[in-house]
Design brief:
The chain is mainly α. The protein is about 50% helix and about 10% strand. Helix 1 runs parallel beside helix 5. The longest helix is centred in the last third of the chain and has 37 residues.
Amino acid sequence: MVVVAQCLGLRVSEILALQWPDINFAELTMRVSRGVLDGIVDEVKTEYSEDDLPLDPDLATVLLDWKRQCPESEEKWVFPSPITGRCYHASPIQQDYIRPAGRKLGLGDIGWHTFRHTYRSWLDSASTPIGVQQKLMRHAQVATTMNVYGNAMMESKREANSKVVQMVLKQELKGSKKTGHLKRKYEEANQLPLFAPAVKTSEARHSMKSLVAGVDLNHRPLGYEPDRSV
């Protein structure tokens, strides 16, 4: 049950209500169409929850191995109770097995829904497009996929952020080298800092353009003052 929960991200109510006819081993698909709560079997939450999911060949092999040893039941449950032949109740399994295993592994008080959240995080870590994630999670709205299950793994977020940072810093480095080279050329030609108070920003920018073009229009005799009347 836990393997199915982690590999497919199903709700525990859906896992407990799986029947063998829901699994098409030839086409490698699984149909999710019902859920069970407190022993009562009903249809799944919405039409979006009822869908065919892809079945990985390795997971199909695990299920086939289980089918050979699975207790028989009239309704062909995938995970029937060997005592009643009916569906298990989710809470006792969580309290007696999942929570103790989580504490032993240092994971704290994990539960059934932990596997669904983890499945969503791993999809995110695998760079799965959000639209595909929505289909695999079987949410009616993509906002549910993004908001409720949207906390990506920290390492995945860190890697994505670092890629952007490196793009920014590399451009900044290239720009700094180019600006520094042009500034030195300008100071050598004019014998004053690029943004000295004696030179207006517009004049400095015009001189820089001329310098890049190979022509220096900034050479002026001592005491020269431009005609401001024009």
